[in-house]
Amino acid sequence: DGFEGGSQSERVPTGIKGFDELCGGGLLKNRSYLVSGNAGSGKSTFSIQYLHNGVVEYDEPGILVVTEEDPKNIRENMKSYNMDLKKLEQHDKLAILDSQSAKVGIPTDEEYVEVDPFDMDSTLKRIVEIKEDIGAKRCVFDSTTSLGFVSDTQKQLRINFLKLSATLSAIGLTSLLTSEVLDKNRMSRFDMEEFVTEGTIRLYNERKEGVRSRSIEVYKMRGSDHSKKINPFEISSKGIEVHPKEDVYF
Amino acid sequence: DGFEGGSQSERVPTGIKGFDELCGGGLLKNRSYLVSGNAGSGKSTFSIQYLHNGVVEYDEPGILVVTEEDPKNIRENMKSYNMDLKKLEQHDKLAILDSQSAKVGIPTDEEYVEVDPFDMDSTLKRIVEIKEDIGAKRCVFDSTTSLGFVSDTQKQLRINFLKLSATLSAIGLTSLLTSEVLDKNRMSRFDMEEFVTEGTIRLYNERKEGVRSRSIEVYKMRGSDHSKKINPFEISSKGIEVHPKEDVYF
Amino acid sequence: DGFEGGSQSERVPTGIKGFDELCGGGLLKNRSYLVSGNAGSGKSTFSIQYLHNGVVEYDEPGILVVTEEDPKNIRENMKSYNMDLKKLEQHDKLAILDSQSAKVGIPTDEEYVEVDPFDMDSTLKRIVEIKEDIGAKRCVFDSTTSLGFVSDTQKQLRINFLKLSATLSAIGLTSLLTSEVLDKNRMSRFDMEEFVTEGTIRLYNERKEGVRSRSIEVYKMRGSDHSKKINPFEISSKGIEVHPKEDVYF
Amino acid sequence: DGFEGGSQSERVPTGIKGFDELCGGGLLKNRSYLVSGNAGSGKSTFSIQYLHNGVVEYDEPGILVVTEEDPKNIRENMKSYNMDLKKLEQHDKLAILDSQSAKVGIPTDEEYVEVDPFDMDSTLKRIVEIKEDIGAKRCVFDSTTSLGFVSDTQKQLRINFLKLSATLSAIGLTSLLTSEVLDKNRMSRFDMEEFVTEGTIRLYNERKEGVRSRSIEVYKMRGSDHSKKINPFEISSKGIEVHPKEDVYF
Amino acid sequence: DGFEGGSQSERVPTGIKGFDELCGGGLLKNRSYLVSGNAGSGKSTFSIQYLHNGVVEYDEPGILVVTEEDPKNIRENMKSYNMDLKKLEQHDKLAILDSQSAKVGIPTDEEYVEVDPFDMDSTLKRIVEIKEDIGAKRCVFDSTTSLGFVSDTQKQLRINFLKLSATLSAIGLTSLLTSEVLDKNRMSRFDMEEFVTEGTIRLYNERKEGVRSRSIEVYKMRGSDHSKKINPFEISSKGIEVHPKEDVYF
Amino acid sequence: DGFEGGSQSERVPTGIKGFDELCGGGLLKNRSYLVSGNAGSGKSTFSIQYLHNGVVEYDEPGILVVTEEDPKNIRENMKSYNMDLKKLEQHDKLAILDSQSAKVGIPTDEEYVEVDPFDMDSTLKRIVEIKEDIGAKRCVFDSTTSLGFVSDTQKQLRINFLKLSATLSAIGLTSLLTSEVLDKNRMSRFDMEEFVTEGTIRLYNERKEGVRSRSIEVYKMRGSDHSKKINPFEISSKGIEVHPKEDVYF
Ligand SMILES: Nc1ncnc2c1ncn2[C@@H]1O[C@H](COP(=O)(O)OP(=O)(O)O)[C@@H](O)[C@H]1O
Ligand SMILES: Nc1ncnc2c1ncn2[C@@H]1O[C@H](COP(=O)(O)OP(=O)(O)O)[C@@H](O)[C@H]1O
Ligand SMILES: Nc1ncnc2c1ncn2[C@@H]1O[C@H](COP(=O)(O)OP(=O)(O)O)[C@@H](O)[C@H]1O
Ligand SMILES: Nc1ncnc2c1ncn2[C@@H]1O[C@H](COP(=O)(O)OP(=O)(O)O)[C@@H](O)[C@H]1O
Ligand SMILES: Nc1ncnc2c1ncn2[C@@H]1O[C@H](COP(=O)(O)OP(=O)(O)O)[C@@H](O)[C@H]1O
Ligand SMILES: Nc1ncnc2c1ncn2[C@@H]1O[C@H](COP(=O)(O)OP(=O)(O)O)[C@@H](O)[C@H]1O
Ligand SMILES: [Mg+2]
Ligand SMILES: [Mg+2]
Ligand SMILES: [Mg+2]
Ligand SMILES: [Mg+2]
Ligand SMILES: [Mg+2]
Ligand SMILES: [Mg+2]
Questions:
Q1: CA dihedral over B36, B41, B44, B50, signed as positive or negative
Q2: Are D88 and D52 in contact (CB under 8 A)?
Q3: How many residue pairs bridge chain A and chain F with CB atoms within 8 Å of each other?
Q4: CA D127/CA E5 separation, integer angstroms
Q5: Is the predicted pLDDT of residue E141 greater than 90, yes or no?
Q6: DSSP annotation of B109
Q7: Distance (Å, rounded) from C-alpha E159 to C-alpha D146?
Q8: A235 contact residues in B (CB cutoff 8 A)
Q9: What's the CA gap between B9 and B145, in Å, rounded?
Q10: Is A152 on the interface with B (CB under 8 A)?
Q11: Domain ranges of chain E
Q12: What is the CATH number of domain C28-206?
């Protein structure tokens, strides 16, 4: 492939095996990136692993905004990758903002809860507060489809998306925003998320002759050279590992 | 294929021949899974067999919510698989909640009837009551298209879906939610069900050279490794049997 | 192909040559089936032949609800298959409910006329009356697209469809409901009829190298095993004859 | 191909060379047929030739309803096929009902003019009058897209279509109704015309390797056997001639 | 190819090299034709060349209605084909009606300006006046997408299209109306323009193996035989030249 | 390929290596061009490089309107191509109009800020002022999707697009307007931008066998001959370089 490597900009390594070398060392600091893929393609795994590595490898605290999952299930899921989120939370290195329970109307005993899940500004305010609390440097917003709940028109949706990504950036967070994809040729649910973020990481899980296999692509990354190849990856008890030397054909 | 096998999480086996070994021993406890497929692909068979096995093999009582079928027909259909639902009901191991007759306006003599089929909360309340009654551990909601009846917008639909799946989870049920599919590349009717459930089991019934054949895939399963293969299965007088060793090409 | 054959459920044979053996001896009693296909694929022929055979072979009177055709033309068309509907009507073995003339505003001298073609309940009431009159056991509703006329939303349409199929079932009729199809990969006009009926019989009339040829498939049949093959059939002066031993490729 | 030939029903020959033998001798009397095809596929030519032959070969007067063309242009166009419509009109064997000029707001000196082109009933009344005047047996309505002008919803459109076709039938006309098609796999503009007419004649004009060629198919014909082949045809100074013995591949 | 050649109708030659022989000598007098194609396919070039040739070769003055371009740019563009429109205008042989500047709200010093670009009737009135002024015989309306601006519904759009084409015809102009196309299998922007005009000239500019090449087809021409082939053409400093002997494959 | 080369019109060279020779020396003066492509295809890079070259190679000041990005990020991104925008700004050779911050509601310390990002006329007025200030000759509007924010209907959108492109032209700017594309066969987001601009430059970034590669095409250029080939290009620390001699196949 032979791309030239990273630029001089400050890099935030994901610490995900085989990934950072695809994009010159990591993400650009204080920018918001899209992580998009089908259901089960690994968006949450990738994103939370980025937060987890942030804490354990780079001592950067992180915020995880969960819009449509139960934080308890997430903690349990991550255990199967040998990541202990609870521990990070207890050391104030990770905060999980539960944005689901209010929406669904189910009682919760989470520490960080979003009370009004249908108001964009209250969510952002909550993130700012938590950032102050734990000194977060990284953020994951999983998933941005929830922005559809706070937007009545396509225009509003786009502005809310911009607002989210620009605010996280402005307050000094390097963020991953996940997006649901329905079709292998698209990059996002609303067909605009890839245009208003600083970069797009695309996860695939395509069927070929009765078997699914996973691959990942740095589709776009403003201000940085990166690999043009689609690379196979694996999810195992070690979480995600990218195999940058192998080829993918589909 | 060689996936690593199940994680340590507590498993709820479906007892369906050849299926549990595809996903490390069964479903994760107290979670909601999507079972999706075309008309006639076997969603109801799979789901009810899961309930039936729950009772006869694992002594776990179950609830079957039927939104658009006549419970009497279901009992008769299951007889052709040598499953006697009536008997399970008489022993208070199975409750069939008839959510159709009120909707359609036809008199019914079912024991469990949903009186207001157009109110999400009343349905959930009814399920909670029945759960208490019979000590259910498993639940099947067949089919979730009926959520469209209680939702005026896409947003509401998504929130109702979340509400259903989160509530079943919260009250301690391990559930299957069926979803109708129209196209072999899609996973659900509303293109969002696979994103808001903990896993997706996809049933196929594709035509090839003038013959249809059945296959099944664990498409997504949060917190668990699983087979990446699409496996052939059969429906016969023994119900569903999956053949995990054979290959499917389409 | 080698499917196991019929279950123990009571069967209603269509008497259509080569068809009943595809599905273990016939339809399940007191259930509603979809017959779907393109224009000219043979839906009306199949359905009326089912009624005709009902009378002459099994002494089961039948009701034919015609929503968008002139009963006089239907009688003439059936003559070309050597079926004399008039005679059956005169012996009170067949009733044709003219649901078109009121809709179109043209005078009619039919015996059974639907006065308000835009009210679902009045139609059902009319069918119940006729059933009493002639002791009908079989019913054909041709075509269900007319349900669109009495439904303002997708939800209403679905409920009306359920209502129609459940009511016919409840009053003791074994019924065929026809549905218009536009595309060879779809099963119905509104993409939901196949989900809310007990089975789907799909008629094809596909073009291949400048010639059309006919084929038929039992796509779905709850509670019964059936052939998985798509079988060629013919329409001739003997009406429809299915050729279950031949193959179809498209 | 070897279809069995015509039924006993009374036939109305089109007199178009090579066509009547495709469908057992012609159209069934007093029924309405769809003639559909792309722009320039020959719908108007076919239909007017049917009227012209009606007069000169079978002494059956005809009515031509023109909804979106200038009658003067039509007369001139037909001259290029050596058909002299003016002469037929002068002998009261043909009436052209100008339904365009009122719609467009341009003065006209046509004998038969539709004054209110946005009212379905006034059009039908006008046709009935003309039928009385000249004793018409045949009718052409070119094109039915104009029914969209008098219909606010899909339902209304379908009912208007039914009304048109049933009324023409009821007053004793054998009719051709033209329909615009956009895609080679469709049969009509509104995807329902082929279902509510007694038959469909489909004209194709497909591109293959940089050349267009014409072909015709009797796609549907209730009450009659017909050829299942798609047959090439030609338009020349003799009008349309079908070549029933040749093959078409596309 | 061997089509029989032109009919006896009076012809208006375009004077475009290689084109008139495709359709028996030219357009039929006093009729309106569609010229459709993708952006940059040559619609404006073809149409203006038709006007230019009208003046310099056949002494027929012409009107050019420009709805979304700056007349000054058009004059400059045409110079690159060695056509001097200014000169024709100065001799009152060509009138350019500027229908853009009012729409866009930019001052103009054009002689012929449309003051109310959102009123169909005022546009037609303006054309009639100009026709009187310069004795025009030819007209180009570039482009008809602007009719969308004066039409609120599909019905209105179609009637406005008919009105435009019928009025130009009625006042004695032989006209080209341009239409934007998005897809190689379509013929117009609104999927109806080809049905309500007397003929359709289709320009293609398709990509094949990394190169675009141009071709042209007489897709429809009422009242006239014409070539059935798609012919390559070129745009150069001599404007458009059609190569009727060569083949196109796509 | 062998196109004839440029016309006599005055040219504005982009200075992008390998590009100007594709279109006879550059853009036509005082016209507006579309630059369209997928996310990450290089639209912003191409456009800003055009502005940068304008200053450093041709001493033509430029305006960059940024609708959905942070100017600070853009300056940093361009550094990775060794372009120092800040320096150009300090010498009043480049003005960046920040149209994002007001929209998103984030404080900014940019010199040029658009206060009302939802009013087309205020934006145009702002551009006119800046043009006066710095004597700009070139302009980039990135991206035109933002016009969707100021347009309620398709008609308004089209008129706003025309207004933007015609105004920039009228005040003496040679401009690039970027447009987001979702599908390799389309040219713009709203399927009309390519019709109302003077030319279209299309950037591709297509996947082939697991690798993406970049290519560029002059798709349309009114008033000028240009290459018909799709040419590969590269983005590196030198910015964009087009390779006009190589071939592309997709
Ligand atoms: N312990 C594990 N070992 C291997 N694969 C796993 C494990 N846990 C989860 N997975 C896989 O990861 C998928 C879930 O990934 P996730 O990050 O939740 O996807 P997304 O967020 O894109 O929906 C599951 O569907 C499963 O295939
Ligand atoms: N006794 C049986 N033996 C074999 N196949 C059967 C039997 N009963 C039903 N089937 C098959 O199962 C299908 C119905 O499956 P079902 O679970 O109702 O599907 P779904 O709920 O996805 O519509 C029928 O269409 C038929 O093909
Ligand atoms: N006597 C006949 N012999 C052979 N084929 C016939 C005869 N009568 C009708 N057909 C065929 O049957 C078709 C009509 O079938 P029909 O049952 O009305 O279809 P549908 O109801 O699906 O539109 C006709 O289009 C014709 O092809
Ligand atoms: N005299 C003629 N000779 C040969 N072909 C002709 C002649 N006149 C018309 N045509 C062909 O017939 C087509 C018009 O057919 P028409 O019946 O008007 O089609 P439609 O009504 O389907 O739009 C023209 O596009 C042309 O190709
Ligand atoms: N002088 C010229 N020499 C060669 N080709 C030219 C010349 N001028 C314009 N063209 C070509 O013609 C195209 C413009 O054609 P035009 O008639 O404006 O198309 P349309 O109106 O269909 O958008 C340009 O994109 C360019 O490819
Ligand atoms: N320094 C660099 N070296 C090589 N490629 C780069 C460099 N900087 C950015 N890129 C590439 O350029 C892309 C961004 O291009 P950009 O002009 O912003 O695209 P667009 O505006 O079309 O979204 C990135 O996705 C990356 O692939
Ligand atoms: Mg996830
Ligand atoms: Mg089911
Ligand atoms: Mg029918
Ligand atoms: Mg016509
Ligand atoms: Mg043009
Ligand atoms: Mg950009």
A1: negative
A2: yes
A3: 94
A4: 38
A5: yes
A6: -
A7: 10
A8: 225
A9: 30
A10: no
A11: 30-242
A12: 3.40.50.300
Q: Indicate the average pLDDT of chain C.
A: 94
**Start-end of H helices in chain D:** 43-58, 71-79, 85-90, 101-104, 120-134, 154-170
Measured CA angle at A29 (ends A218, A99), to 5 deg: 80
Contact F144, F168 (CB under 8 A): no
With H, G, I as helix, E, B as strand and everything else as coil, classify residue F210: coil
pLDDT tens digits along D77-103: 999 999 999 999 999 999 999 999 999
Ion ligand 8: residues, CB within 5 A, are B 43-44
Whether residue A167 and residue F213 make contact (CB cut-off 8 A), yes or no, is: no
Given an 8 Å threshold on Cβ–Cβ distance, is F148 in contact with A162? no
- Does residue D77 belong to the interface with chain E, where contact is any CB pair within 8 Å? yes
For residue F100, the chain A residue with the least C-alpha distance is: A162
* Domain B34-206 class in CATH: alpha beta
Q: Alpha-carbon distance F142 to F162, whole Å? A: 16
Q: Which residues pair with A216 in a beta bridge?
A: A203, A231
Interface check E40 vs F, CB under 8 A: yes
Q: Ligand 9 centre and the CA of C231: distance in Å?
A: 20
SS3 label, residue F48: helix
What pLDDT does residue F246 have?
A: 65
For residue C203, the ligand 3 atom closest to its alpha carbon is 22
Q: Do chains B and A touch (3 or more CB pairs under 8 A)?
A: yes
Residues of chain F contacting residue A169, judged by C-beta atoms under 8 Å apart: 70, 73
- Of E7, E43, E42, which is closest to residue E26 (Cα–Cα)? E7
Q: How far apart are CA E168 and CA E174, in angstroms?
A: 7
- Nearest-angstrom CA–CA distance, C227 and C242: 13
Atom of ligand 6 nearest to the CA of F143: 21
List residues bridging with A199 in a β-sheet: A33, A221
250 residues of chain A, pLDDT tens digit each? 446 544 467 999 999 999 999 999 999 999 999 999 999 999 999 999 999 999 999 999 999 999 999 999 999 999 999 999 999 999 999 999 999 999 999 999 999 999 888 899 999 999 999 999 999 999 999 999 999 989 999 999 999 999 999 999 999 999 999 999 999 999 999 999 999 999 999 999 999 989 999 999 999 999 999 999 999 999 999 999 999 766 776 6
CA gap A127, E67 in Å, rounded: 51
Name the fold adopted by F11-242.
Answer: Rossmann fold (3.40.50)
Helices assigned H by DSSP within E60-104: 71-79, 85-90, 101-104
* ipTM for the complex shown: 0.95
User: What is the 8-class DSSP label of residue B229?
Assistant: B
Cβ(F40) to ligand 6 under 6 A? yes
Task: Determine the pLDDT at residue B246.
Answer: 66
CATH number assigned to the domain covering E30-242? 3.40.50.300
Measured CA distances, F191 to E183, E193, F226 (Å): 11, 18, 23
Give the pLDDT band (50/70/90) at residue C5: very low
Average pLDDT over residues C113-119: 90
B199-210 per-residue burial string, b: 16 or more CB within 10 A, e: under 16 = bbbbbbbebeeb
Nearest ligand by distance to the CA of D67: 10
Residue in B34, B43, B45 to alter for ligand 2 test, most ligand atoms within 8 A of Cβ: B45
Ligand in closest contact with the CA of A221: 6
Find chain F residues with C-beta within 8 A of A228's C-beta: 211-213
Q: Are D221 and D198 in contact (CB under 8 A)?
A: yes
Please give the structure tokens belonging to residue F108.
């900014």
